[in-house]
Amino acid sequence: MIRLIVGIGLGMVLGLWIGVNIGRQQPWSNNPFRQPTLGERLQRDGGKLIQRAGQAIDRAGQQLQNPGH
Q1: Contact at 8 Å (CB) between 36 and 44?
Q2: Cβ distance 46 to 54 under 8 Å?
Q3: 23 shares its domain with 44
Q4: Is 33 helix (H, G, I), strand (E, B) or coil?
C-alpha cells in the first residue's frame, strides 16, 4: 500500500516537472522553475514585436493603396 502511494506521488511530481517543461517548449530535463534570462525573453518577445510591426506596415500600405475602402 505504501509503495502504491509513493509511486503515485512520484509519478505526479515527475509528470508535473515534464509537463511544465513541455508547456514552455523546453527540453523535458530542464528545471521548470528557472526564470528565463533577459536574452531569452528579448529573443522571444522581439520576434513577436517584429511580426506585429510588419503587419501594421502592411495594413498602412493597403490603406494608402485603397483609401476609399
Answers
A1: yes
A2: no
A3: no
A4: coil
And the C-alpha cell for 57? 506596415
What is the residue-averaged pLDDT of the chain?
87
Are residues 4 and 16 part of one domain?
yes
23-53 pLDDT tens trace: 888 888 888 888 888 888 888 788 888 888 8
Domains in the chain, number: 2
Radius of gyration of the chain (CA): 23
Instruction: Please give the grid coordinates belonging to residue 16.
Output: 508535473
Domain range enclosing 61 = 36-69
Grid cell in block for residue 6: 509513493
